[in-house]
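Bumping my old thread because nobody answered last time. Still need a sequence for this structure:
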């Protein structure tokens, strides 16, 4: 396939693994959805009685704030190593990883939706034939 930018290369291993994983997740979620719904109803009732989310949010904000400050200091030190070459290598690796991951997510969601749309149609045909 050729686009305006040139020939399209074969998707990376990360891209293909992510797409396959998301497709499998769609199938698994379709199977587990009734159980998840039941669990969420029970968890909501428990939350209303005990107000756990207020306590969790309160302590999480303090933790994330402290972690964010320390991470910023460490990141700036790493990026300045070896005249910025380490930072450039990290950026290139991050770009490759994000492209593969987002491409795989996009493809996996598309395939998962196609599978989920196809299954009810297949089930309704078998019911109509009976």
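Sorry it took so long. Here it is:
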């Amino acid at each position: 396939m050729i686009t305006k930018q040139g020939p399209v290369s074969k998707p990376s291993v990360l891209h293909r693994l992510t797409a396959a994983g998301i497709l499998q997740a769609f199938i698994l979620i379709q199977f587990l959805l009734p159980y998840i719904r039941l669990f969420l109803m029970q968890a909501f009732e428990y939350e209303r009685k005990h107000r756990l989310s207020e306590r969790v949010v309160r302590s999480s904000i303090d933790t994330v704030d402290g972690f964010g400050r320390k991470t910023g200091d460490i990141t700036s030190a790493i990026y300045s190593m070896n005249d910025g070459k380490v930072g450039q290598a990290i950026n290139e690796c991050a770009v490759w990883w994000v492209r593969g991951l987002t491409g795989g997510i996009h493809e996996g969601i598309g395939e998962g939706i196609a599978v989920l749309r196809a299954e009810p149609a297949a089930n309704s045909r078998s019911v109509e034939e009976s």
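The two ends are 44 Å apart (CA to CA). Let me know if any region looks off to you.
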